[in-house]
Design brief:
The protein is built from nine helices and six strands, in the order αβααββααβααββαα. The protein is α+β, with helices and mostly antiparallel strands.
């Protein structure tokens, strides 16, 4: 698993860096590389897949993690740079004058000089310092890539949750409007019957109350539609007031059953969860940092070389004798330098202890994430089972409420039921439809939450249990 995530991190980092350079290049020419991919179009109606694409393209959190990966990849290059020789160029030039006191009198001079030079240093042996730095940087790059993958998963889940809530709110709004229309029709009928003496005052009061309640439920339903739409817009990376048009699912969504046991799902999650793999990468990064701190106790061997061209032009005089001189001199030097810090006030000892403590902390974080992963799957799995039972219950309740309403309506038309019986049956039917829509949204959201807990981007294939 480690090798797989490591190679994937490097591949993704290379792709992301290339994309980042394209974005920067495009920005400098007043264009956007994403314009042809997932730019928001107000006239377009978005279904769930299109909303996921829009969210991943516009979400500032995923974009921020993207640039974290680019920064981590640049850090890898920075860590590898000491493997190359360091070359620098210097040049000094100017005028100075002075004197040297000697026995025969002051030796005065004035001169103009130009001294270009080049220096090179190459670290030959560092007892693992550079290798540890590279391992540390590569592990952090891998962790950043895995955290980005997890951010994508949480972004998709947030979008799914908002979408299911909004579509449920739309269904509940339709149910509330239908109930209002029936309540208004019933009220008008009872009012007409009251005027002709065929209905009583209590029946008219019941119709008035039912109409007021239906109107209140419509107001609440419309409010829920607007709130869930605002949440969906933000989850899509848009302002809450953006003119986003949403396409609800076409037809009925197949609601299937989980086909796997919770123990199997936990095992899959422990393999697939990017954040858990990121914690493992953090352990490797901390271990590399510990190795780097220990390497500081050892010497370093480097090669140094220099070349300087000294061009001079000066005047000098001594005891009445003066002269002018000019010319150049090439100075060349090469050395093998061994450096070894023998005592530094226990700074290196403290640094090793600090790195070891950080490594222990990283291992604890990994174990915590592992436990949290099992907990997330366990809770999500049981929430899904509960939500699926709620769907079955509300479906049966809707069927029963529909049959009761049809029976009450027929009985009312035959004069065998009162208007209060009919109103009660209609209210029960409207409540059943609303609860069924909410239960369906909860079940779909629980499936998305289970996928998130398992480290997957979409719900697994399900079927009815045998």
């Amino acid at each position: 698993m480690t090798s797989h995530h490591h190679k994937r991190a490097l591949r993704n980092a290379a792709t992301l860096i290339a994309t980042a350079f394209l974005l920067l290049f495009a920005d400098s020419h007043e264009t956007k590389a994403t314009d042809s991919v997932a730019v928001f179009v107000a006239e377009r109606s978005y279904d769930l897949p299109a909303l996921v694409e829009l969210s991943l393209a516009n979400n500032p959190y995923t974009r921020g993690d993207f640039y974290k990966i680019a920064a981590a990849a640049a850090t890898v290059g920075e860590a590898k740079s000491p493997y190359y020789p360091k070359v620098s160029v210097t040049a000094t030039g100017g005028y100075d004058s002075g004197y040297n006191p000697i026995q025969t009198g002051p030796e005065a001079y004035s001169r103009v000089s130009v001294n270009p030079g080049i220096q090179m240093e190459y670290l030959v042996l560092d007892f693992g310092r550079r290798a540890a730095d590279v391992r540390h940087a590569v592990s952090l790059l891998e962790a950043a890539d895995l955290e980005y993958n997890r951010r994508v998963q949480t972004t998709i889940y947030a979008l799914q949750e908002s979408y299911f809530s909004h579509t449920a709110a739309l269904t509940q709004q339709d149910s509330a409007l239908t109930n209002l229309e029936f309540a208004r029709t019933t009220h008008d009928m009872v009012e007409a019957q009251k005027k002709s003496g065929l209905a009583t005052e209590p029946e008219l009061l019941a119709a008035n109350k039912n109409l007021s309640q239906a109107q209140s439920e419509v107001v609440t339903a419309k409010r829920n539609v607007e709130v869930t739409l605002g949440n969906l817009r933000v989850a899509s990376g848009l302002p809450a007031n953006a003119p986003l048009k949403v396409s609800p699912p076409n037809g009925n969504i197949p609601l299937q059953y989980l086909s796997s046991r919770v123990d199997q799902l936990i095992d899959i999650a422990l393999i697939n969860r990017p954040d858990l793999a990121a914690r493992t990468a953090d352990i490797r990064a901390s271990h590399a940092a510990t190795d780097r701190a220990k390497a500081d106790f050892l010497p370093k061997l480097s090669l140094q070389g220099s070349y300087t061209s000294q061009n001079y032009n000066y005047n000098a005089n001594l005891a009445g004798v003066s002269g002018s001189f000019n010319g150049s001199y090439n100075a060349v030097g090469g050395f093998a330098v061994l450096s070894w810090d023998l005592f530094d006030g226990f700074e290196r000892v403290s640094k090793v202890k600090k790195r070891q403590a950080e490594e222990a902390e990283a291992r604890s974080d990994a174990e915590s994430t592992r436990l949290e992963t099992t907990r997330d799957v366990w809770i999500s799995y049981n929430d899904t089972l509960k939500a699926r039972k709620a769907v079955d219950f509300t479906e049966s309740q809707t069927i029963s409420a529909t049959e009761n309403f049809n029976a009450a309506q027929a009985a009312f038309q035959d004069g065998l039921a009162t208007i209060i019986d009919l109103i009660s049956a209609q209210n029960n039917l409207a409540t059943a439809h609303s609860e069924q829509a909410g239960a369906t949204a909860d079940y779909l959201t629980s499936l998305a939450a289970l996928s998130l807990a398992m480290g997957e981007n979409s719900p697994r294939s399900n079927k009815h249990p045998d």
